[in-house]
């Protein structure tokens, strides 16, 4: 089995406090520490010399709260691979120093996943130092706050849509289902599929979110209880394609309800890692299960996905699923995400008030 360190090794060149001349600037961060007394996450003041190694320095303008961040700060999941750690798997900001050929001071950049907040200091800090191979320049007309509203969640949803397109799925084939539709990935999957011309069925356990999901483009709302039981492997054919952000029994039922030659892009596991089903949907209906992961850099795919997002997502659709909070509230809100206490996307304003471009 591969581990995160197969892609993001921790060694002497990337693990710590390599002082650089003049690196004395203080900045605020959330840091996770672990000791004999247990797991602790709190606000601290750090200096640039405390940052891990990398060829690009960034002033972080915005970050975002993901489920992984909630697990990291609460200690409820094995997310953090080294301590101390700055959580935050997403950030957007402005380059201040670069030894990477593709970036220069002043560039507006975005980073998601790639081991951030797990093996390498992440976005819950006002400064970051990392490999330029993990960065994308922010494509216009996206602004930094909206890019963080998209973040790993929206990028993963775009990866799912692109996977379905590579499979050959087209909107004329029927209805698209999105499970976990009121969450971050699900919300963006609904909006992106609707923008691409699909009729979208949003599967959610939150009846109160029906109007929100319809504003994003859902044409119908399905109670997640319809996917909660251990159903037959082959059920009534309802969906041409699906995006599953839940896993477990929900995914099994979605596959069982997918039509001949349909496909499901699976990217989540909040409902469990186990998939209890047999081969019937695959060998009797030709259903395809497309695995989607969003951690490895694969920078070409990431940049293509960001370009699509900038083109396909209306600012109003992004804003409809976004709440912006100050950095001082980020720790409590990150803890709340693991209990399902967040709808859509929560963007963290790091308080630096950085311009998007010269002259702003």
Describe the structure.
It contains ten helices and 15 strands. The protein has two domains: 162 residues, Medium-chain alcohol dehydrogenases, catalytic domain (Quinone Oxidoreductase, Chain A, domain 1, Alpha-Beta Complex); 140 residues, NAD(P)-binding Rossmann-like Domain (Rossmann fold). Strands 3, 4, 5, 6, 7, 14 and 15 form a seven-stranded mixed β-sheet that branches. Strands 10-9-8-11-12-13 form a six-stranded parallel β-sheet, sandwiched between helices. Strands 1-2 form a two-stranded antiparallel ribbon. With 360 residues, it is α/β, with parallel strands linked by helices. The chain starts with a helix and ends in an 11-residue tail after the last strand.
Give the strand content: 25-35%
Describe the sheet with the most strands. 7 strands, mixed
Topology as H/E string?
A: HEEEHEEEEHEHEHEEHEHEHHEHE
Q: What is the average of the pLDDT values?
A: 91
Known CATH architecture of the largest domain = Alpha-Beta Complex
CATH topology type of the largest domain: Quinone Oxidoreductase, Chain A, domain 1
Gross morphology is globular
Number of domains: 2
Helix content: 25-40%
CATH class of the largest domain: Alpha Beta
Please identify the structural class as seen in this structure.
alpha/beta
Over all CA atoms, what is the radius of gyration?
20 Å
Number of strands: 15
CATH superfamily of the largest domain: Medium-chain alcohol dehydrogenases, catalytic domain
Terminal residue distance:
48 Å
Helix tally equals: 10
Pick out the low-confidence regions: 1-7, 10-22
